[in-house]
Design a protein that fits this description.
- This protein is of the alpha+beta class.
- The chain is built from 16 helices and eight strands.
- It has an eight-stranded mixed sheet with strand order 3-4-5-2-1-8-6-7, with helices on both faces.
- The radius of gyration is 22 Å and the shape is globular.
- The C terminus is likely disordered.
Length: 380
């Protein structure tokens, strides 16, 4: 049991550069405090997950659900980016996610969630971020909502809920795949200009596709003419975005690179597909140097949760001194859907690349726009 001051102090100490090598004992002690604090969110996270599932299923029975306890590198990165933030006050230590078919369903889920008192704070306001209406600088889109849920000893904990469409999810996980295999931090807006521009322009084109009525019901071959029509009616900024996206598809060898990422971990993917039982947390360890992925599964009960966090923190201690090692503790409704909820950890960019192929097939968007304008002038 650690006090709030000890939690804050541990978070501050973990910001010390190269602490794991300079003072291994102090690093281990601080990581134990972090582990304790992270695990105190488990009950609240379970309650938030239940609320999310209940609010989502009436609107999308095929939705994918997942939950996770925030990774140590993500915690430290966030503490560094926001100098006034303390570990004790971080609001997304625990997080859960729903992935739905389209934005129409997403908006209905958000509306249902906002009916719950757990999402209203003292001032009657919601703590939410609509990254669809106002995407992040890197192009990320989705809806985030923070609520207060009951934790241990009657204390409430802040839990972040993310609701994304399948297309938004495919974009976000593709970006994380690139981070995973190239050592960049595009998710934190740190990386090469080429990759930043590629993902930013792709996000704009994905948003255009999602503005097509019933786009999620269309086959890719049918989607292309609808997308071409939308693009032809768009502003020059969106036209330029399409050209920029196509430019980087070629320059960065996007399809070849993502195929290489996927092939390197395919054998592990097949192992997971053989299991189809309810589960608790799954500890995923990826070694990007030798391209190996291992999984450790835990039972869906209190004892299993405790074991999961124990193994998780020990794995993170190892990963801190081994740059090629990435670990994550994740959960979904069952093992079979882990890959759907976290395709980034399996280097699976299938859905992302399918939509990218549609964008690539537009041969001359500027000419397309001129043809559309001429047609409209004739009709008028």
């Amino acid at each position: 049991m650690y006090s709030g001051k000890q939690v804050i102090k541990a978070g501050e100490t973990l910001l010390t550069p190269n602490l794991e090598n300079k003072n291994p004992q102090l690093f281990s002690e601080c990581m134990d405090v972090l582990s304790f604090w992270r695990f105190t969110h488990e009950n609240a996270l379970a309650a938030a997950f239940e609320s999310l599932v209940k609010a989502t299923l009436p609107h999308d029975k095929q939705a994918i659900f997942a939950k996770r306890l925030k990774r140590y590198p993500s915690i430290v990165s966030k503490l560094r980016r926001f100098e006034n933030m303390k570990l004790k006050n971080m609001q997304d230590i625990g997080g859960c996610r729903a992935i739905v078919k389209d934005e129409k369903r997403l908006r209905k889920v958000v509306k249902e969630l906002k009916k719950l008192p757990t999402f209203k704070f003292e001032n009657g306001q919601y703590k939410s971020k609509d990254y669809i209406k106002k995407p992040k600088q890197d192009g990320y889109r989705g809806y985030h909502l923070i609520g207060k849920f009951g934790g241990e000893n009657g204390q409430t904990k802040s839990i972040e809920l993310q609701i994304r469409t399948k297309m938004q999810h495919s974009w976000a996980t593709a970006l994380e795949i690139v981070d995973l295999f190239t050592g960049q931090a595009l998710k934190s807006n740190i990386g090469t200009t080429e990759w930043k521009d590629f993902f930013s322009s792709t996000s704009e084109q994905f948003a255009l596709i999602e503005s097509i009525p019933m786009y999620s019901e269309l086959e890719m071959s049918t989607l292309l003419p609808s997308y071409a029509k939308k693009l032809g009616q768009s502003t020059m900024d969106i036209i330029y975005s399409n050209k920029l996206c196509q430019h980087y598809i070629t320059k960065l060898d996007i399809f070849e690179r993502f195929a290489a990422f996927a092939n390197s971990l395919r054998v592990i993917e097949n192992q997971l597909q053989e299991i189809d039982t309810d589960t608790g947390y799954v500890l995923i360890s990826i070694d990007t140097f030798d391209k190996s992925l291992t999984t450790t599964m835990f039972s869906n009960d209190e004892e299993g949760n405790k074991d999961a966090e124990k193994f998780y923190i020990e794995a993170e201690k190892q990963a801190a001194s081994k740059q090629a090692l990435i670990v994550a503790l994740v959960s979904s409704s069952n093992v079979a859907s882990i890959k759907d909820a976290y395709p980034n950890y399996f280097a699976d960019s299938t859905s992302f690349l399918e939509y990218l192929e549609v964008i690539e097939k537009i041969e001359n968007p500027i000419k397309l726009q001129k043809v559309t304008r001429k047609k409209l002038a004739i009709e008028l």
